[in-house]
Amino acid sequence: MTTQAPHAADLGEAAELIVTFSDNKLLIDLCGEFDKNLAQVEKALSVQIVHRGNELALIGDPDTAEKTESVLKAMYLRLEQRKELLAPDIDAILRFGNSSENTGVRDGDQIEMFSAGGTEIRTRKKTVEPRTPTQKKYVEQLFKHELVFGLGPAGTGKTYLAVAAAVSMFIEGQVDRIILSRPAVEAGERLGFLPGDMKDKVDPYMQPLYDALNDFLPANQLEKLIEEKKIEIAPLAFMRGRTLANAFVVLDEAQNATTMQMKMFLTRMGQGSHMAITGDTSQIDLPRGVPSGLVEAKNVLRDVKGIGFTQFDVSDVVRHPMVAKIIIAYDKNAKRNG
User: Fold this and answer.
1) Distance (Å, rounded) from C-alpha 128 to C-alpha 35?
2) Is the pLDDT confidence value at 97 over 90?
């Protein structure tokens, strides 16, 4: 891959930067069907990209053209490594490029750090990669610390990445079992209104955890592991009185745990265990006047050495671009009415 210096007819006009790619087949994959990948980059960076043979001409101001070159090189590197290049992957590369403002790392270096990998989580069905700098930090903490808090809005991958890490550690033999839990607090409905026994009543509220597991383990293997109690999915109340040794334990929707429940859960940790606690303190469904155990735990444990805290924000939303817009709109409305 070679690059020609940008040039412009007159000072102040848009520059044209020529990037040459040695493998034309990979270049076709980089461009995507009907150049949809190039269109995604053009829209994100406000640059024009023209495909000419085995070259891409980048037309825009010099800084933007250079940043676009870094993004395209990272995309090309993924393809050289025989990795997928889907719209979310391109979005991740673009996010990493935008993350260097306060890190002292140049955009190109930051993007290459992402495209070179190193923080992938390998499971039986897929390899999961962080798609924002905050996700990358979170993944690193999940494997480094025994207790990690992932805090922030919906759609940022807090629970998904924690479950992926749990499955990865289980496969590698670092833990003997996986325990996934949530407080049985509903946003509106009541468990008692649902038909069936306790399992039938509880399972719908545990469904997001089942969904995540199904992404990482074959269905027949997952069913067998659940039958053998190697994987448990249960309400938080079922954790009382247990010692959770040699397990990876995930507490989801932890903002809905009371202070006593949170303390009870944290003190279940046994030898060889890892815990990930995830939640969004802006989505508390506890009765009015009941304080959130997650809010208190954040304040009490913030400075305890060996505990990892990752704070996500709206820029880390990877579920769908519209989700970020919805969160921003609600935040603005809350500030106006607050």
Assistant:
1) 26
2) no
Amino acid at position 17, single letter: L
In degrees, rounded to 5, the angle at the alpha carbon of residue 146 between the alpha carbons of residues 143 and 149 is: 85
State the pTM of this model: 0.76
What value does the mean pLDDT take over residues 112-124?
69
Q: Which of 48, 51, 55 is nearest to 3 (CA)?
A: 55
CA distance linking residue 224 with residue 221, whole number of Å: 5
What lies within 8 Å, CB to CB, of 18 at 6+ separation is 3, 4, 55, 56, 57, 58
In which residue are the tokens 């395209």 written? 72
- The single-letter DSSP state of residue 268 is T
- Give CA angle at 212 (323, 144), nearest 5°: 95
User: Band of the pLDDT at 241, cuts 50, 70, 90?
Assistant: confident
Nearest-CA neighbor of 103 among 135, 130, 133, 131?
A: 133
Rounded (to 5) percent helix, strand, coil in the chain: 50, 20, 35
Q: Please tell me the predicted confidence (pLDDT) of residue 238.
A: 84
Provide long-range contacts, Cβ within 8 A and 24+ apart, for 54-57.
Answer: 54/20, 54/21, 54/22, 54/24, 54/27, 55/18, 55/19, 55/20, 55/21, 56/18, 56/19, 56/21, 56/27, 57/16, 57/17, 57/18
Instruction: Give whole-number Cα distances, 180 to 158, 231, 275, in Å.
Output: 13, 8, 10
Supply the DSSP symbol for 34: G
CB contact at 8 A, 15 and 65: yes
Q: Token pair 């949809």 is at which residue?
A: 36
